[in-house]
Amino acid sequence: MKGKVLLVDDEAHITRNLEKVIPWEMLGLTVAGTAKNGVEALGLMEQQSIDLLLCDIRMPVMDGLELVRHIREKGIPCDIIMLSGYQDFAYTRTAIQFGVNDYVLKPIPYDELTGVIARIMSSQRSKQKQLQEEKQKLGRMIDLANEKILYDIIMDYTDVTADHWLLTGDEQQQFVLIVLDLDVGSEKTKDWRDWSDKERKLWNFAVCNVLREKLRQNGLPHAVIQIRDGEWCVLIETDKTGTFDLSLIKAWAEMLLTVVNNHVKLSLFAGIYREFATVADLSGAYKLVQQGMQLTPVHDVIALYPSDRLKSTEADQAFWNTAEKMLGAVKRGDHAAVDSGLQSITEQLQQMNEPSFSRTKPLLHYFVLHLMREMKEMGVLTREQEDMLWRRWDRRFGIKDLLSIIRQVTYAVSEISMDKKKQSERSMAETKAFLDRNLYRDLSVEETATHAGLSPSYFSLLFKQSFGETFIEYLTRQRMEKAKTMLADTLKSVAQIAKEVGYAERRYFTKVFMKYTGENPTDYRSKRQNGAQNGEDLIEPFQ
């Protein structure tokens, strides 16, 4: 796309010569217009975007310097070259103060002027490219931060309230929710189960990247959140005034399944939540889709949940509630609650009639898979234990076998839970020290979890249990408190403070700081430092 140049001179023959002699096409410019004075030029610039202004200094009505002053006051982005027959340093000095890019004396040396224009436009394009790259980088940083927050919301680790400082304005977002999952119990996934942890991690990373790139290419505002090994939640933000177009949403799901199959060579299933979900709905919507995908014995590759075909009975719901409580007890290492859950499941099975009993097998089937995957995330199963369980899973077995696996897994966890709990306490203490030492770095959940020797999902759960807030809430709070202290007590620039608390991009730091404090960093500093000038010296930046 060509840039636009405006020629301003009260001598018509000069603007005509400039139009004809300067090779505008070669310079990537087109002459957008000419003007005889500053008033005419300002009027044209308010009507259209101008990239370069060539302007005489001495003109009637409004001279060139006055025009430049108005341009800068109005904040109109434009590079400026001044033309003048007066070799007076005062003009040059004033022009420089107004941010003029260059100054050419009349009679105009056209070859020299062409070189000046070429240099200025080259610099302008480099700046535009840099700004675009910074904008894309900032956008990706915000996307990644949002994904971390959305993960905590989906997993129900954080409260979604209007006054939550990390969610200011975002709680009104509306999403299409699609869960993509690998059927880990099927024959097709035996190879995947044999992969090492490193191979699985690379595979999960590749799937996330493929999904994000495809959504970006299609211009869909999105978040791709890996929930656990082999399962993702894709959120596509939609217009609040739009309608739930199921055919379009199914086409999106098909597109995502196809791109994963083509690039990563794995077949997934897609579950779509049957209506739009707000931020407050995400956790419940995800659980309904996840549960529906696992409890439907035979389902389509792309299916809508909750399903009209699958109606939950009171017995189903009672079993499901008990199973979920027991899984939570396993994660907490609560022996008594695990034993109580097993006893409750057994009693419920004994009280069921034949139709309910046959319906419960898929529930147990799902729960065993769910339990094995969660234990895998927690790292409480050795590779040998996991392989042995998968071998048993590949054989046909009934209710008693399913209950046997549940007992085996939960008891195995119980035996090591006390040591695991002590180890977890040590891991969290080391994690806190690690975060405090590295606030200046762009830390991720994945990197910190790896440092603690835990999977990201289990790390997130353990962190919330240990500190009463999510990883991103804790890290952001620590950074903001440190930034507040530095703004109030030092003369370091906002950009420097942003870097020292882990934000490479000042604009993103300002956005987060305003959410946290309700003030931008400059205003915050001004108020605190003006109030602190009653005898206390500010700390000079280290040189």
From TrEMBL:
| Chain ranges of the Response regulatory domain | 4-121
Q: What ranges does the record give for the region Disordered, renumbered to this chain? A: 523-543
GO BP annotations, alphabetical order: phosphorelay signal transduction system
Q: What molecular function does GO assign, one term?
A: sequence-specific DNA binding
In terms of Pfam families, this protein maps to: HTH_18, Response_reg
Cleaved signal peptide residues = none
Q: Which PANTHER family match?
A: ARAC-FAMILY TRANSCRIPTIONAL REGULATOR (PTHR43280), REGULATORY PROTEIN POCR (PTHR43280:SF10)
What protein name applies here?
Two-component system response regulator YesN
